[in-house]
Amino acid sequence: MIRYRYLFTQLVSRELRRKYKGSRLGVLWYLVNPLVLLGAYTLMFGHVLKVQSFPDYPIFLMIGIVVWTFFQQSLLASSESLIDQGPLVRKARFPREAIPASSVTVQLVTFLAILGLLLPVALAIRGSAAPALLLLPVVIALLFGFVLGCALIISVLHAYFRDVAPIVAAALLPWFFLTPIFYQPSTLAFARQHAWVETLLAWVNPIAPFVEATRSILYSGTAPDWGHLVYIVCVAAVTLGVGALVFRRMEGELAVVV
Fold first, then answer.
1. Which residues of 124-150 are buried (b: 16+ CB within 10 A; e: fewer)?
2. CB-based contact 222:216 (threshold 8 Å)
3. Which end of the chain is more exposed for a tag (fewer CB within 10 A), N or C?
């Protein structure tokens, strides 16, 4: 990847130009979906159903939505990436991992742009400026590694089995509601009565600790506990390692199947 870094940067810049071509607002359009979700879920879960009651609930909610949107959009974009770049795969020799990696990097740019707007608002309203903020780049890097590992697996599987992308898209909807975006598992009445529910929502779900770690830093101004830190380090390393292994095992026939 270091040797072919020029190709990688070209893939990223090409995808960014394609996304924002002809758009006057550019990346700001990607604020629309999170803001619409923020308004809808704040109204529904903060006022109508009153599932949880947190101070500054829109900030609490927005942090979860931003992390989830990066995860979701990266998987959806990378799933079709090898097929979309089929002519390049067939004509040139280069690390094919660069293609799904570029899709995730494009989503990372959007994620960082939105986070850059959210960060000062969260710090000003929540007063969460603290030394724990230094851990935010570490959490983001680990999140990127976890998402990249998932993207490598999904992209190469979809190149061989074209049902993978629709399955992932369908699975993301219930996965969204099982992720602690608009609630915290430990404060749910049902979870307090049944310990397995909190375990399922907080630990079996691999994206949940990333949401909780980011929220702990930005919303509470505290460092994530050691359990969350160890978890996200392990899950990022394992997912990225497995993703790279699966991709390399299956990339031999990519020029044929795409």
1. eebebeeebeebeeebbebbbbbbbbb
2. yes
3. N
Query: Which pLDDT tens digit goes with each residue over 200-212?
Result: 777 889 999 999 9
Query: 49 or 106: whose pLDDT is higher?
Result: 106
Question: What does the pLDDT read at residue 73?
Answer: 92
- Terminus-to-terminus CA distance in the chain, angstroms? 21
Dist CA 221 CA 205 (whole Å):
24
Q: Is the pTM of this model over 0.85?
A: yes
Number of Cβ within 10 Å of residue 219's Cβ equals: 22
* Whether the Cβ atoms of residue 160 and residue 250 lie closer than 8 Å to each other: yes
| Total residues found in the chain within this entry | 258
CA 196 to chain centre: 25
Instruction: Specify whether the CB–CB gap between 209 and 232 falls below 8 A.
Output: yes
Largest Cα–Cα separation, the chain: 58
Closest by Cα among 238, 221, 206 to 136: 221
| H-only helix segments in the chain | 5-20, 32-43, 57-79, 81-84, 86-91, 98-126, 136-160, 164-177, 189-193, 195-199, 208-215, 226-250, 254-257
pLDDT tens-digit series, residues 213-234 = 999 999 999 999 898 899 999 9
